[in-house]
Design a protein that fits this description.
Chain lengths: 227, 421
């Protein structure tokens, strides 16, 4: 009996009128345990749990020096990112760019833009080298991150990065970010009675995409057929 | 000297020589040539002979005459196709649903090809019971069907400094709309039991970029889904097969594909994807962070640069509008660059955080039009002009460009992406 009751309850929870796209079920009773899924073991979790927070939580054991990092970097990173982090070709630039964020041509790099050590450490740990992810040992990882910081003049040549020295790293742009404020700073866009007639003086064309001419050629007929 | 290169150069030159050259090219470039043998009073080939039998096309595909309806990329944009983007051909579509094979792609380390038997999702952190799910586990749980748009925050990102790409596929094609089938994330979290200290989730993909983002618990409990189907069939590999996160109304980057792990924590992680990327740099050098919601936006998909006008007379102007803040309430269309507006007709479903299709009808007799559309959502937010956005944000922010698009229609039916002032 309890089974059929809960089946009905489940049916009610999930029933939503066609096209209404209601919010996901609002529950009054305590959530049901469906008995689906297994307990995740600490070993399973440890194998996949690679994220690191700004305060260093999640950083693995190990350490690496700027000097050792230079070797790793030249072997495994420089081909794309350039010997000095200046970028080879169109791959991302990792260094320089200081003082450019408010300019017409901002250059966002680890040194000029990343707010936290963890933001770069966590990323390299999971995604780099590009195409050979999660191949670095922990010591190599610490070392290469230390070297990238050194390229950006954030740590000196003698620096050794580890959990112990983590909090000594201060990223220059840590205070460069603020929370989404659109509902305040763009309040004027909440205007449910926009102008409908004679809203502005006659309009002039000020720019043409065809002049820049960077659109890839495709087979779509772009030409008008009207004589 | 290869012919195709030569063709490209010739057509580009024609494109630039102005109206005279265009008129000449127009005839050749116009609709496919008709074959009188197939037209009445003659009886067409296909009316006489057998075609392919059943199951000759076990997984059906579009007509061979639609072979140009494809995703396209802009190769100069990125160093490698494995970390790049391809665009939905919006100009070739109608209604609101994007066919699965045309949904734009954004990968950071190529397409992960996951054997569904080896798929696992780990849910851990500040929970009472850390859990691991197989795909089969997820499919056994109660599920819902929801239609949502997914827009990349960088959609239209190349247009901040002015009109650049000539076609709505390129200017607005980082969006798609499909029906997802999946388990409410809330239900999964309930299985593990979130501790009272839990405030944020880390959601992480299983591809070689391991893309990780911080998701507020409140959003996870509101309307997020752990989805495994799109438009009825299993997710496409490009869209995260076998499991992706659905985060309605929020920027596409957080809709983690190939979802492998969800960790509950008490603060955000500030990963590279939510700091170095997906933050909106303002003119003063400071950047907005966690700008999750996609504001109301619209675009006229036809006519548009890739969908020129072929005949004078009656025209149906058609487009898409969407808002991450709720339902679309109204769409207005202007033919004179925003001086005067008329309200368009919305046809088909109007759903929460979903695209609507709108139409406006007009007579055209060769006069120049400056076509614009303007979306309004149920919160009263009205899509701003590009200049109004620039006034607040400058031109460096890359993301969240939801400014009003202008298409210039010329006397020969050709349409161009332009800026107006």
């Amino acid at each position: 009996m309890s089974r059929s009751v809960s089946l009905i309850a489940a049916a009610l929870l999930l029933a939503s009128p066609a096209l209404a796209q209601d919010k996901v079920a609002v529950r009054k009773s305590p959530p049901r345990n469906y008995g689906v899924g297994q307990a995740a073991t600490p070993a399973q979790i440890a194998g996949w749990d690679i994220d690191v927070r700004p305060d260093g939580q999640g950083a693995p054991p190990g350490k690496g020096s700027v000097k050792d990092g230079e070797k790793v970097y030249l072997e495994k990173c420089a081909a794309c990112h350039g010997e000095f982090g200046e970028s080879a070709g169109r791959w991302p630039q990792l260094a320089q760019g200081k003082g450019t964020l408010a300019s017409h041509d901002p250059v966002k790099t680890v040194g000029s833009y990343f707010p936290y050590l963890s933001s770069v450490f966590d990323y390299i740990r999971r995604a780099m080298p590009f195409g050979d992810a999660q191949s670095l040992s922990n010591d190599e990882l610490y070392a290469v991150v230390a070297f990238v910081l050194n390229l950006n003049d954030i740590v000196d040549d003698k620096f050794v990065l580890s959990k112990e020295t983590w909090s000594r790293v201060k990223m220059p742009n840590e205070n460069g970010f603020y929370d989404d404020d659109r509902e305040k700073s763009e309040k004027a866009f909440w205007n449910s009675r926009p102008c409908m007639t004679d809203c502005r003086p006659p309009v002039k064309i000020t720019g043409h995409a065809a002049v820049i001419d960077v659109t890839p050629e495709d087979k779509t007929p772009r030409k008008g057929g009207v004589e | 000297m290869t012919d195709s290169n030569d063709d490209t150069r010739t057509s580009r030159r024609r494109f630039l020589t102005g109206a005279a050259g265009l008129a000449a090219a127009g005839a050749a470039g116009a609709a496919r040539a008709e074959n009188p043998k197939n037209l009445p009073p003659n009886v067409a080939d296909w009316s006489k002979h057998l075609g392919d039998g059943v199951a000759v096309r076990p997984y059906g595909h579009p007509s061979k005459f639609e072979k140009d309806v494809i995703r396209r990329d802009v190769q100069w944009l990125t160093a490698s196709r494995e970390s790049s983007v391809s665009f939905t051909p919006l100009h070739e579509l109608d209604g609101i649903i994007t066919p699965n094979g045309l949904c734009f792609e954004r990968h950071h380390s190529g397409i992960a090809e996951i054997d569904p038997d080896d798929y696992r999702l780990i849910l851990h952190g500040l929970v009472d019971r850390p859990l691991i799910f197989t795909l089969e586990n997820l499919k056994r749980l109660p599920r819902v069907n929801r239609i949502y748009f997914l827009e990349c925050a960088a959609n239209s990102g190349m247009e901040w400094r002015g009109a650049q790409l000539n076609g709505c596929q390129y200017t607005h094609g980082m969006i798609h709309t499909v029906q997802y089938t999946g388990v409410p994330l809330k239900l999964l979290l309930e299985q593990a039991g979130v501790k009272a200290t839990g405030k944020w989730l880390l959601v992480e993909g299983g591809d070689a970029s391991g893309l990780d983002r911080s998701l507020p618990l409140s959003k996870a409990l509101d309307d997020c889904l752990v989805a495994y189907r799109q438009n009825g069939e299993m997710l496409r590999p490009e869209q995260g097969y076998p499991v992706r996160l659905v985060v309605p109304g929020w920027q596409g980057n957080i809709w983690i594909k190939w979802l492998r792990r969800i960790e509950v924590g008490d603060q955000p992680w500030y990963t590279r994807e939510e700091t170095a990327k997906y933050t909106d740099l303002m003119e003063n050098g400071k950047a907005r962070k966690f700008t999750f919601v996609m504001d109301a936006k619209s675009v006229i998909t036809s006519p548009s640069p890739q969908a020129p006008i072929r005949r004078k007379g009656f025209q149906v102007i058609s487009g898409l509008a969407w808002s991450g803040r709720g339902k679309i309430k109204r769409v207005d269309v202007s033919l004179d660059g925003g001086r005067n507006w008329r309200t368009a007709r919305i046809d088909g479903p109007v759903l929460d955080k979903c695209c609507v299709r709108f139409y406006a009808e007009a007579e055209w007799n060769g006069e120049p039009w400056l076509l614009q559309s303007r979306a309004m959502d149920e919160t009263g937010y009205t899509q701003p002009s590009k200049d109004a956005l620039r006034k607040i944000r400058g031109v460096n922010s890359i993301y969240h460009n939801n400014g009003i698009q202008t298409w210039a229609l010329k006397a020969n039916g050709e349409v161009e992406n332009v800026e107006v002032g």
